[in-house]
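Q: Given only this backbone (266 positions), what sequence would you predict?
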């Protein structure tokens, strides 16, 4: 049975959480343009062995937000969710949610062990200024209440073909994303300079995962995932590196869950 509730973060923000299963606590952290729904199938599988808490990050789904965003507030949100999960928990971060998990671990949040999947850092020497330009533009679009433009900036960064963007703008899917578009600035902030930071401050056992479903002509962000994961695994003292065969940026929960379960119980 899945319970739906809220926890209150340090600044008073209400964070919507779901809880299911019985066993050690596991918290799931979603990535960009996700309100917690992306991790729901994974939660259902992990709930066979764990008490799984999945949540909507601030500004998404049933969670509220505050006028002044800072990465520290999202770290506090995660700390509040972990407190509600029993005071300490294993934590999994998907995509840009993985960057938030890494920051929380480095900040001393009571994480027992952590796992991240395909955190979209880029180790290229030319990347920080390119990333900074995107952050400035998407943050301005959000500040000026131009969610359509924010979504298009994100998709162009991901090298989505122009004709696909036109098609998406005309689809019902686009309308459903507009409510989440302001949180693109949140994710951009969580990724910092676009490259890993504070890795030496992470002392918990960590599992750094990617899939291997790559193809010729993949966009830059896909090609950057493996080098970034290698850098994470090298920079975190207690890290292991893993690859999920046949998996893309949205992995099959039936493939991912056993790997996470092994890590969280080892």
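A: Predicted residues:
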């Amino acid at each position: 049975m899945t319970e739906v509730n809220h926890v209150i973060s340090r600044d008073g923000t209400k964070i919507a959480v779901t809880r299911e299963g019985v066993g050690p606590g596991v918290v799931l952290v979603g990535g960009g343009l996700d309100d917690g729904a992306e991790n729901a199938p994974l939660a259902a599988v992990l709930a066979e062995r764990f008490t799984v808490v999945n949540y909507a990050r601030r500004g998404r789904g049933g969670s509220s937000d505050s006028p002044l965003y800072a990465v520290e507030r999202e770290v506090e949100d995660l700390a509040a969710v972990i407190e509600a999960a029993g005071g300490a928990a294993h934590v999994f971060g998907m995509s840009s949610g993985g960057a938030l998990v890494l920051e929380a671990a480095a900040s001393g949040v009571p994480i027992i062990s952590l796992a991240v999947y395909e955190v979209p850092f880029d180790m290229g020497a030319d990347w920080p200024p390119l990333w900074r330009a995107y952050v400035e533009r998407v943050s301005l679009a959000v500040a000026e209440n131009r969610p359509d433009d924010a979504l298009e900036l994100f998709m162009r960064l991901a090298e989505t073909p122009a004709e696909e963007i036109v098609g998406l703008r005309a689809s019902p899917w686009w309308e459903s994303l507009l409510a989440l578009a302001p949180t693109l600035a949140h994710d951009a902030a969580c990724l910092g300079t676009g490259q890993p930071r504070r890795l030496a401050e992470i002392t918990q056992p960590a599992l750094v995962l990617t899939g291997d479903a790559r193809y010729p002509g993949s966009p830059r962000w896909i090609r950057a995932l493996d080098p970034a994961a290698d850098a994470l695994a090298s920079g975190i003292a207690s890290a292991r590196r893993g690859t999920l065969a046949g998996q893309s940026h949205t992995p099959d929960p039936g493939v991912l869950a056993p790997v996470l379960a092994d890590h969280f119980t080892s």
